[in-house]
Design brief:
Order of helices and strands: HHHEEEHEHEEHHHHH
Radius of gyration: 21 Å
Helix content: 40-55%
Strand order of the largest sheet: 1-2-3
Distance between the termini: 42 Å
Shape: globular
Number of helices: 10
Structural class: mainly alpha
Strand content: 5-15%
Protein backbone atom coordinates (compact mmCIF):
# COMPACT_ATOMS: atom_id res chain seq x y z
CA UNK A 1 0.00 0.00 0.00
CA UNK A 2 2.73 2.46 1.00
CA UNK A 3 4.75 1.65 -2.14
CA UNK A 4 1.78 2.47 -4.38
CA UNK A 5 1.09 5.76 -2.61
CA UNK A 6 4.73 6.75 -2.78
CA UNK A 7 4.98 6.30 -6.54
CA UNK A 8 1.77 8.12 -7.50
CA UNK A 9 2.10 11.61 -9.04
CA UNK A 10 1.33 14.43 -6.63
CA UNK A 11 1.76 17.65 -8.57
CA UNK A 12 -0.25 20.63 -7.37
CA UNK A 13 -3.03 20.32 -9.95
CA UNK A 14 -2.71 16.57 -10.55
CA UNK A 15 -2.42 15.18 -7.06
CA UNK A 16 -3.34 11.56 -7.71
CA UNK A 17 -1.62 10.49 -4.50
CA UNK A 18 -4.10 12.57 -2.50
CA UNK A 19 -7.01 11.06 -4.47
CA UNK A 20 -5.92 7.53 -3.57
CA UNK A 21 -5.18 8.53 0.02
CA UNK A 22 -8.81 9.66 0.28
CA UNK A 23 -9.99 6.36 -1.24
CA UNK A 24 -8.05 4.34 1.30
CA UNK A 25 -8.19 6.70 4.27
CA UNK A 26 -11.97 7.21 4.13
CA UNK A 27 -13.15 4.00 2.46
CA UNK A 28 -14.75 5.81 -0.46
CA UNK A 29 -15.87 4.83 -3.91
CA UNK A 30 -14.02 6.64 -6.71
CA UNK A 31 -17.15 8.55 -7.71
CA UNK A 32 -17.59 9.70 -4.10
CA UNK A 33 -14.04 11.04 -3.91
CA UNK A 34 -14.33 12.90 -7.20
CA UNK A 35 -17.68 14.40 -6.14
CA UNK A 36 -16.31 15.99 -2.96
CA UNK A 37 -16.77 19.74 -2.81
CA UNK A 38 -14.74 22.00 -0.56
CA UNK A 39 -17.66 22.65 1.78
CA UNK A 40 -17.80 18.92 2.55
CA UNK A 41 -14.52 19.15 4.48
CA UNK A 42 -14.90 19.77 8.23
CA UNK A 43 -11.40 20.34 9.60
CA UNK A 44 -12.69 21.48 13.01
CA UNK A 45 -14.23 18.08 13.72
CA UNK A 46 -12.05 15.97 11.38
CA UNK A 47 -15.08 14.87 9.37
CA UNK A 48 -15.91 14.46 5.71
CA UNK A 49 -19.48 14.69 4.44
CA UNK A 50 -20.38 12.39 1.57
CA UNK A 51 -23.31 13.80 -0.38
CA UNK A 52 -25.57 11.66 -2.53
CA UNK A 53 -23.47 8.51 -2.41
CA UNK A 54 -24.64 5.18 -3.79
CA UNK A 55 -28.40 4.94 -3.42
CA UNK A 56 -28.52 8.75 -3.21
CA UNK A 57 -27.63 8.55 0.50
CA UNK A 58 -25.57 10.95 2.60
CA UNK A 59 -23.13 9.86 5.28
CA UNK A 60 -20.28 11.18 7.42
CA UNK A 61 -16.83 9.58 7.74
CA UNK A 62 -13.74 10.50 9.77
CA UNK A 63 -11.21 12.65 7.96
CA UNK A 64 -7.71 11.19 8.47
CA UNK A 65 -5.63 13.50 10.63
CA UNK A 66 -2.58 12.68 8.52
CA UNK A 67 -4.26 14.37 5.56
CA UNK A 68 -4.96 17.69 7.28
CA UNK A 69 -1.80 19.40 6.07
CA UNK A 70 -1.78 17.90 2.55
CA UNK A 71 -5.42 18.95 2.16
CA UNK A 72 -4.79 22.47 3.44
CA UNK A 73 -1.90 22.86 1.01
CA UNK A 74 -4.19 21.55 -1.74
CA UNK A 75 -6.80 24.18 -0.81
CA UNK A 76 -4.25 26.94 -1.39
CA UNK A 77 -3.59 25.52 -4.85
CA UNK A 78 -7.33 25.44 -5.52
CA UNK A 79 -7.70 29.04 -4.38
CA UNK A 80 -5.21 30.15 -7.03
CA UNK A 81 -6.98 28.06 -9.67
CA UNK A 82 -10.33 29.50 -8.65
CA UNK A 83 -9.07 33.07 -8.93
CA UNK A 84 -7.76 32.26 -12.40
CA UNK A 85 -11.14 30.80 -13.38
CA UNK A 86 -13.00 33.89 -12.20
CA UNK A 87 -10.89 36.00 -14.53
CA UNK A 88 -11.70 33.77 -17.51
CA UNK A 89 -14.04 35.37 -20.03
CA UNK A 90 -17.53 33.79 -20.10
CA UNK A 91 -16.76 31.64 -17.05
CA UNK A 92 -20.06 30.37 -15.59
CA UNK A 93 -18.66 28.57 -12.56
CA UNK A 94 -18.63 24.98 -11.41
CA UNK A 95 -21.19 22.37 -12.40
CA UNK A 96 -23.91 22.16 -9.72
CA UNK A 97 -26.61 19.61 -8.81
CA UNK A 98 -30.06 20.29 -10.22
CA UNK A 99 -31.78 23.28 -8.66
CA UNK A 100 -28.85 24.52 -6.57
CA UNK A 101 -28.15 27.44 -8.90
CA UNK A 102 -31.75 28.59 -8.52
CA UNK A 103 -31.82 28.22 -4.74
CA UNK A 104 -28.39 29.76 -4.24
CA UNK A 105 -27.62 32.33 -6.95
CA UNK A 106 -23.89 32.78 -7.33
CA UNK A 107 -23.08 29.38 -5.79
CA UNK A 108 -21.43 28.19 -8.99
CA UNK A 109 -18.70 30.78 -8.54
CA UNK A 110 -18.40 30.40 -4.78
CA UNK A 111 -15.13 28.86 -3.63
CA UNK A 112 -16.83 26.47 -1.22
CA UNK A 113 -18.86 24.86 -4.02
CA UNK A 114 -15.74 24.04 -6.03
CA UNK A 115 -14.51 20.48 -6.49
CA UNK A 116 -11.78 19.10 -4.26
CA UNK A 117 -10.33 17.42 -7.34
CA UNK A 118 -11.19 19.61 -10.35
CA UNK A 119 -10.66 18.70 -13.98
CA UNK A 120 -7.43 19.95 -15.49
CA UNK A 121 -9.21 21.90 -18.22
CA UNK A 122 -12.41 23.93 -18.31
CA UNK A 123 -15.37 22.47 -20.21
CA UNK A 124 -16.85 24.54 -23.02
CA UNK A 125 -20.66 24.73 -23.10
CA UNK A 126 -21.42 25.79 -26.70
CA UNK A 127 -25.18 26.08 -26.14
CA UNK A 128 -24.59 28.82 -23.57
CA UNK A 129 -21.24 30.03 -24.95
CA UNK A 130 -19.72 29.65 -21.50
CA UNK A 131 -16.97 27.73 -19.74
CA UNK A 132 -17.50 25.57 -16.65
CA UNK A 133 -15.33 23.52 -14.31
CA UNK A 134 -16.06 19.82 -13.91
CA UNK A 135 -14.33 17.40 -11.53
CA UNK A 136 -11.42 15.12 -12.43
CA UNK A 137 -12.52 12.22 -14.64
CA UNK A 138 -12.35 8.76 -13.13
CA UNK A 139 -10.57 7.33 -16.15
CA UNK A 140 -7.57 9.57 -15.42
CA UNK A 141 -7.24 8.09 -11.93
CA UNK A 142 -7.55 4.55 -13.29
CA UNK A 143 -4.89 5.20 -15.93
CA UNK A 144 -2.38 6.69 -13.49
CA UNK A 145 -2.97 3.87 -11.01
CA UNK A 146 -2.48 1.26 -13.74
CA UNK A 147 0.81 2.89 -14.72
CA UNK A 148 2.00 2.89 -11.10
CA UNK A 149 1.18 -0.80 -10.66
CA UNK A 150 3.07 -1.65 -13.86
CA UNK A 151 6.06 0.40 -12.72
CA UNK A 152 6.15 -1.48 -9.43
CA UNK A 153 5.98 -4.80 -11.26
CA UNK A 154 2.96 -5.96 -9.28
CA UNK A 155 1.11 -8.93 -10.79
CA UNK A 156 -2.05 -8.50 -8.73
CA UNK A 157 -4.84 -6.45 -10.29
CA UNK A 158 -5.38 -3.17 -8.43
CA UNK A 159 -8.23 -0.75 -9.13
CA UNK A 160 -9.48 2.35 -7.28
CA UNK A 161 -12.04 0.13 -5.54
CA UNK A 162 -9.21 -2.00 -4.14
CA UNK A 163 -8.41 0.78 -1.67
CA UNK A 164 -11.99 0.85 -0.37
CA UNK A 165 -11.77 -2.90 0.19
CA UNK A 166 -8.43 -2.44 1.97
CA UNK A 167 -9.97 0.22 4.23
CA UNK A 168 -12.71 -2.19 5.34
CA UNK A 169 -10.41 -5.19 5.70
CA UNK A 170 -7.86 -3.31 7.78
CA UNK A 171 -10.55 -1.88 10.09
CA UNK A 172 -11.87 -5.40 10.62
CA UNK A 173 -8.39 -6.68 11.39
CA UNK A 174 -7.98 -3.81 13.86
CA UNK A 175 -11.00 -5.05 15.80
CA UNK A 176 -13.77 -2.71 14.64
CA UNK A 177 -17.23 -4.27 14.55
CA UNK A 178 -19.16 -4.91 11.34
CA UNK A 179 -21.90 -2.39 12.15
CA UNK A 180 -19.33 0.43 12.40
CA UNK A 181 -17.69 -0.60 9.14
CA UNK A 182 -21.11 -0.91 7.47
CA UNK A 183 -21.95 2.67 8.47
CA UNK A 184 -18.63 4.05 7.24
CA UNK A 185 -18.91 2.27 3.89
CA UNK A 186 -22.53 3.29 3.42
CA UNK A 187 -23.79 -0.26 2.95
CA UNK A 188 -27.57 -0.65 3.21
CA UNK A 189 -27.32 -4.35 4.04
CA UNK A 190 -24.95 -5.80 6.65
CA UNK A 191 -24.57 -8.86 4.43
CA UNK A 192 -22.62 -6.73 1.96
CA UNK A 193 -20.19 -5.78 4.70
CA UNK A 194 -19.85 -9.39 5.85
CA UNK A 195 -17.82 -10.26 2.74
CA UNK A 196 -14.85 -8.71 4.52
CA UNK A 197 -14.93 -11.48 7.10
CA UNK A 198 -13.32 -13.62 4.41
CA UNK A 199 -10.41 -11.21 4.04
CA UNK A 200 -9.29 -11.52 7.66
CA UNK A 201 -6.30 -13.86 8.09
CA UNK A 202 -7.24 -17.12 9.78
CA UNK A 203 -4.49 -16.58 12.35
CA UNK A 204 -6.33 -13.48 13.59
CA UNK A 205 -9.72 -15.14 13.95
CA UNK A 206 -10.79 -16.25 17.39
CA UNK A 207 -10.93 -20.06 17.65
CA UNK A 208 -14.42 -21.48 17.99
CA UNK A 209 -15.04 -22.84 21.48
CA UNK A 210 -17.56 -25.65 21.78
CA UNK A 211 -20.39 -24.92 24.26
CA UNK A 212 -19.57 -28.26 25.90
CA UNK A 213 -15.96 -27.21 26.42
CA UNK A 214 -17.19 -23.91 27.83
CA UNK A 215 -18.94 -25.76 30.66
CA UNK A 216 -15.62 -27.16 31.81
CA UNK A 217 -13.76 -23.88 31.43
Amino acid sequence: MAAILEILPHDDLQNYRLVVQMLYGCGLRLKEVLSIRLQDLDFDNNLLYIRRGKGDKDRVVPLPRSLRQPLKHHLKVLQRLHQKDLKTEDYAGVFLPNGIDRKHPGAAKSFYWQWLFPAIQLTHMPEHKTWQRYHLHGSHVQKVLKQAIAQLGMLKRVSPHTFRHAFASHLLQAGYDLQTIQKLLGHSDIRTTMIYLHTRPHSEQKPVLSPLDALAA
